[in-house]
């Protein structure tokens, strides 16, 4: 049945359309439509195809045009930023920040006025990324595609990147392409490690001969460490100055606390290595730029061992009271962490607001964290003659000493800040979350002049606990390792972190503890050494799994998620102790091999060293674009001390190193 309402537009007559109120324009559209309908199906298809084709072409040319426009605007932004940079306007004027005077109570710390004060006098343009970011990564780290080594580092004898002319001089191409980003290559000598202007591979060959003839001069190795430090510092200075960490590949920085962590952590290393110019520049930054009056949350443990420890040791080495003043300031600002129901400190403190809190997901703190801040706070009390610091940390020591839940002196990994009791009991490790508890038992005993017998008792009992519960040997080469206990079952895995233990055991034996501690130290340092030499890069993984059954003839397996190396210090730390106490030159040689492997696989040509994601693949160690502050604070410092013939340089009878390698004095017996 006919129904005008339902009749479609095309079939309406002009009058009908007029009656329904359509306009003239609509008339025109109507006649077009009629013409369209009069075309054959083939004609209509052809026209539609042409229109679609033109539409696609239009879209394609639009996106490439906008790409160009974006490029132009990025460049002009970058140029604007560089101009601001070049005018030296980035640093925060710190003189504006009122310094906390001695005697101000924790409760008097005012919320910061930093946001206003930090602003430079001219508006800053947003900083463009130094290079285009790779697509964001998802999934567990081991599964993420990292940069290929070929993308950023040169291989031995690689053609095309380093050309050798007839005189043997190397000429580097100016750029290496990395997924569209341009990374500047430096002179050929920079692309490999350089010692006194010689290519490291050449030095290696010479060294092998020298080692045989016994003519190798120790000074070469000392200078190699200085050179490595300078190279790392060059990257930090160029791309991360005053920031927490260098990201050497993207040539920028990472921020953790926003307190110049790498710079502070590296101060005493520069002093010890004799790098006067670098030290002077860094000191200037501390004097003029460093302010702790900042509305930031910091981790109590990390800021104590790196910042407080770094400032205290630099004060002791240099005698410069600037560092003591800064140490007092940060130490005081960390104290709110101890205001908990149990007096076991919270993990985090806001050093500007004077408030503290546990992590968001728990009221637990980590046992290693609350028991490895004692050396620093005790020293702060001694220097300031203010007992509050020492009292706070020794209260923690006392409570942990008395606590139930240990197993033969071994401690669980967590402690609750409300109840003051161990939680998640049943898991025991000498690795992450417990490691430095053991280290600080011995070192506090030494720091205090061997008088605090409870510390010593706890330490000796714990080492017995290690022997009884955690010590095992691999079936193939009988490598001794320290496994982990989980609800009574031994897991034959060992963190690289555990490699601090041989050094600590040796230090104890040197101070009169049982001789079998030294025997164990010798066995364990061999295992730590094997964790390096059995890897294709010559660098240890973060975690090693040891074979108790001889099923594949190997001692060590590495799980994909554990293949990374963060430039950690523990093995070279122990090598340093072992060499000092035994004078066995093999420990120096092992350290030298490690330095060379760092140079080969983690050194970034434009400055800095990077952690890597895969120690099993020398062709693609998967650089992670991060230089941890402990590489400068610990790794290079211990290597330098290992190679130095001056055993009075930080004598182990006069200093104890905190867990971040900052030497603090052993207290004179009168105090
Ligand atoms: C350092 O910050 C300290 O040595 C800490 O005790 C453990 N981890 C890192 C280095 O690996």
From TrEMBL:
Residue pairs linked by disulfide bridges in the UniProt entry: 499-528
Entry protein name: alpha-1,2-Mannosidase
Catalytic activity: N(4)-(alpha-D-Man-(1->2)-alpha-D-Man-(1->2)-alpha-D-Man-(1->3)-[alpha-D-Man-(1->2)-alpha-D-Man-(1->3)-[alpha-D-Man-(1->2)-alpha-D-Man-(1->6)]-alpha-D-Man-(1->6)]-beta-D-Man-(1->4)-beta-D-GlcNAc-(1->4)-beta-D-GlcNAc)-L-asparaginyl-[protein] (N-glucan mannose isomer 9A1,2,3B1,2,3) + 4 H2O = N(4)-(alpha-D-Man-(1->3)-[alpha-D-Man-(1->3)-[alpha-D-Man-(1->6)]-alpha-D-Man-(1->6)]-beta-D-Man-(1->4)-beta-D-GlcNAc-(1->4)-beta-D-GlcNAc)-L-asparaginyl-[protein] (N-glucan mannose isomer 5A1,2) + 4 beta-D-mannose; N(4)-(alpha-D-Man-(1->2)-alpha-D-Man-(1->2)-alpha-D-Man-(1->3)-[alpha-D-Man-(1->3)-[alpha-D-Man-(1->2)-alpha-D-Man-(1->6)]-alpha-D-Man-(1->6)]-beta-D-Man-(1->4)-beta-D-GlcNAc-(1->4)-beta-D-GlcNAc)-L-asparaginyl-[protein] (N-glucan mannose isomer 8A1,2,3B1,3) + 3 H2O = N(4)-(alpha-D-Man-(1->3)-[alpha-D-Man-(1->3)-[alpha-D-Man-(1->6)]-alpha-D-Man-(1->6)]-beta-D-Man-(1->4)-beta-D-GlcNAc-(1->4)-beta-D-GlcNAc)-L-asparaginyl-[protein] (N-glucan mannose isomer 5A1,2) + 3 beta-D-mannose
Binding site for Ca(2+): 659
Biased composition, class Pro residues, residue ranges: 123-132
Pfam families: Glyco_hydro_47
Sequence similarity: Belongs to the glycosyl hydrolase 47 family.
GO MF entries: calcium ion binding; mannosyl-oligosaccharide 1,2-alpha-mannosidase activity
Region annotated Disordered, chain positions: 117-143
Role, per record: Involved in glycoprotein quality control targeting of misfolded glycoproteins for degradation. It primarily trims a single alpha-1,2-linked mannose residue from Man(9)GlcNAc(2) to produce Man(8)GlcNAc(2), but at high enzyme concentrations, as found in the ER quality control compartment (ERQC), it further trims the carbohydrates to Man(5-6)GlcNAc(2).
Protein's gene: man1b1a
Annotated PANTHER family: ENDOPLASMIC RETICULUM MANNOSYL-OLIGOSACCHARIDE 1,2-ALPHA-MANNOSIDASE, MANNOSYL-OLIGOSACCHARIDE ALPHA-1,2-MANNOSIDASE-RELATED
The entry's keywords: Calcium, Disulfide bond, Endoplasmic reticulum, Glycosidase, Hydrolase, Membrane, Metal-binding, Signal-anchor, Transmembrane, Transmembrane helix
Reported cofactor(s): Ca(2+)
Gene Ontology annotations of biological process type: carbohydrate metabolic process; ERAD pathway
Transmembrane segments: 45-65
């Amino acid at each position: 049945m006919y129904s005008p309402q339902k009749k479609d537009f095309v079939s309406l007559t002009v009058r009908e359309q007029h009656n329904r109120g359509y306009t003239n324009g609509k008339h025109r559209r109507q006649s077009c439509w009629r013409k369209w309908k009069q075309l054959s199906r083939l004609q209509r298809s052809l026209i539609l195809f042409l229109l679609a084709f033109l539409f696609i072409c239009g879209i394609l040319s639009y996106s490439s045009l906008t790409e160009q426009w974006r490029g132009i605007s990025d460049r002009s932004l970058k140029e604007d930023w560089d101009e601001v940079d070049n005018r030296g306007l980035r640093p925060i004027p710190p003189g504006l920040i009122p310094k906390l005077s001695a005697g101000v109570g924790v409760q008097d710390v005012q919320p910061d006025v930093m946001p206003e004060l930090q602003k430079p006098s001219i508006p800053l343009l947003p900083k463009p990324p130094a290079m285009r970011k790779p697509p964001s990564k998802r999934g567990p780290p081991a599964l993420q595609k990292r940069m290929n080594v070929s993308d950023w580092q040169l291989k031995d004898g690689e053609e095309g990147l380093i050309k050798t002319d007839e005189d043997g001089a190397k000429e580097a191409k100016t750029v290496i392409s990395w997924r569209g980003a341009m990374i500047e290559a430096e002179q050929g000598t920079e692309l490999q490690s350089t010692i006194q202007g010689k290519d490291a591979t050449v030095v290696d060959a010479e060294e092998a001969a020298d080692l045989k003839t016994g003519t190798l001069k120790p000074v070469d190795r000392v200078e190699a460490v200085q050179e490595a430090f300078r190279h790392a510092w060059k990257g930090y200075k160029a791309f991360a100055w005053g920031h927490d960490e260098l990201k050497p590949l993207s040539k920028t920085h990472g921020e953790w606390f926003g307190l110049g962590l790498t710079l502070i952590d590296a101060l005493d290393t520069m002093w010890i290595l004799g790098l006067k110019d670098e030290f002077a520049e860094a000191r200037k930054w501390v004097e003029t730029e460093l302010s702790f009056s900042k509305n930031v949350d910091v981790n109590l443990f990390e800021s104590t061992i790196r910042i407080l420890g770094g400032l205290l040791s630099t004060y002791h080495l240099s005698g410069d009271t600037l560092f003591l003043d800064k140490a007092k300031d940060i130490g005081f600002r960390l104290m709110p962490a101890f205001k908990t129901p149990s007096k076991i400190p919270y993990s985090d403190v806001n050093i500007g607001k004077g408030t503290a809190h546990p992590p968001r997901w728990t009221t637990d703190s980590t046992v290693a964290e609350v028991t490895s801040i004692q050396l620093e706070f005790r020293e702060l009390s001694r220097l300031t003659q203010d007992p509050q610091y020492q009292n706070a940390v020794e209260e923690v020591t006392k409570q942990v000493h008395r606590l139930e839940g240990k197993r033969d002196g071994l401690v669980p990994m967590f402690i609750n800040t409300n109840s003051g009791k161990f939680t998640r009991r049943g898991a025991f490790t000498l690795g992450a979350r417990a490691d430095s508890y053991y280290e600080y038992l011995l070192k506090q005993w030494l720091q205090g002049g061997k008088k605090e017998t409870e510390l010593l008792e706890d330490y000796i009992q714990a080492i017995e606990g290690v022997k009884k519960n955690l010590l095992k040997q691999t079936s193939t080469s009988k490598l001794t390792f320290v496994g982990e206990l989980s609800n009574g079952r031994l897991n034959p895995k060992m963190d690289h972190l555990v490699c601090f233990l041989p050094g600590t055991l040796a230090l104890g034996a040197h101070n009169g503890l049982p001789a079998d501690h030294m025997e164990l130290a010798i066995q364990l340092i061999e295992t730590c050494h094997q964790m390096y030499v059995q890897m294709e890069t010559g660098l240890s993984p973060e975690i090693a799994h040891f074979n108790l059954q001889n099923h594949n003839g190997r001692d060590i397996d590495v799980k994909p998620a554990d293949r990374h190396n963060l430039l950690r210090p523990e093995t070279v730390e122990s090598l340093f102790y072992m060499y000092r106490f035994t004078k066995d030159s093999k420990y120096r040689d092992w350290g030298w091999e490690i330095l060379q492997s760092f140079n080969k696989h983690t050194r970034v040509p434009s400055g800095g060293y990077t952690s890597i994601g895969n120690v099993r693949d020398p062709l693609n160690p998967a650089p992670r674009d991060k230089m941890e502050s402990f590489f400068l604070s610990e790794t290079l410092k211990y290597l330098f001390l290992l190679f130095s013939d001056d055993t009075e340089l930080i004598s182990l009878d006069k200093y104890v190193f905190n867990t971040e390698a900052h030497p603090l004095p052993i207290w004179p017996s009168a105090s």
